[in-house]
Amino acid sequence: MKKAKKFLGLILAVSLSTVAVAGCSGSAKGDVSKTNTIENGKVTITNVSYDPTRELYQQYDELFETYYKEKHGTEVEVIQSHGGSGKQARSVIEGADADVVTLALEHDITLIEQAGLIDSGWLKEFDLDSSPYTSTIVFLVRKGNPKNIKDWNDLIREGVEIINPDPKSSGGACWNFLSAWKYALENNSNDEEKAKEFVRKLYANVTVMDSGARGATTTFVENGQGDILIAWENEALNSVAEYPDKYEIVTPSVSILAQPSVAIVDENADKNGTQEVAKEYLAYLYTEDAQKIIGENGYRPTNEKVLQSFKDKFDLNVRLCKIDDFGGWNSAYEKFFDDGAVFDEIYGS
User: Fold this and answer.
1) What is the largest CA-CA distance in the chain?
2) Domain span at 118
3) Same domain, 20 and 105
4) Residue pLDDT, tens place only, 260-315
């Protein structure tokens, strides 16, 4: 049954991927396959992003378009595309005309770099390793927490139904997996075989594995499936804000500092004549006005002053591991998420 559900999810993911490449989804304002041009004094750029950033960039784009017109006298239109981060990276590699990418993890942008579309050194082009905001992983449960879920160990109990996206297509799902793995190691004397058995039990309780984080949220929140959603913090915050009487957040004892990354797709930006506006579009994310929008949308601002203004919104005391604890993204991907790696081993057994 588990593999059948995953197969159906993959069919859906392929269908959605076709839509995402042919045209934009969610809050998108145009066709991602369109060649961006500068016409009649108007610049059009495309931002290919990951699942849960629809609302963030819808609000940010309005701010940036106003700012750019006032500063340069030039009108800008930003086209949006959203989907699972890994799927979005593949769409750019396969020809989606992105001027910028704002994806869930560094590794997905590295794949685009390796395809020759992004110049080397992109990670240092913008501050803080080109990560203008951060997030973490939390649990979203139904109001009253009927299954009494408090930490990762509760997720392997019999009868707990988990909703979680697929690490093969979702960047958020990779952060989820690593958080669970870190907890399992720390609570099993760093014994990797025991950690592997822990995550095997956890994924045996995953009843729906969507292709992206937003799809997983829809399955849990809108469709009413499962007892717990392993979620981006911003997705959980938005769900509680929308349905305060139906859901609540549980913060596990160990989570992870998730650092979504941004980059200019240099090959496309050079072709489209949008290199300058693309660079300013990403750099403006670090301004105080943009950082406030970031916080309002449930992401953690990297500007410490702005972050502290949201201290009542975020649990700033949660203990966060980092991707460096896993040797960086290249090592983590090779060990856990490549074909035949740990995730395939535990989920296929």
Assistant:
1) 64
2) 2-133+260-308
3) yes
4) 999 999 999 999 999 999 999 999 999 999 999 999 999 999 999 999 999 999 99
Same domain flag for 183 and 329: yes
219-258 residue pLDDT tens: 999 999 999 999 999 999 999 999 999 999 999 999 999 9
Q: Is residue 221 part of a domain?
A: yes
d(CA 301, CA 131): 10
Whether residues 45 and 178 share a domain: the answer is no
* CATH at residue 55: 3.40.190.10
125 and 94, same structural domain? yes
Q: How many angstroms separate the first and last alpha carbons of the chain?
A: 13
Given pLDDT bands bounded at 50, 70 and 90, which one contains residue 37? low
Write the CA distances from 125 to 7, 118, 120, 134, 309, integer angstroms: 39, 11, 10, 17, 27
Task: Please indicate, yes or no, whether residues 253 and 264 belong to a single structural domain of this protein.
Answer: no
Residues 52-81, mean pLDDT to the nearest whole number: 97
Which secondary structure element, helix H or strand E, spans residue 235, and what is its range? helix 233-242
- Rounded CA-CA distance 8/16 in Å is 12
pTM of the model: 0.87
The answer to whether 132 touches 286, Cβ cutoff 8 Å, is yes
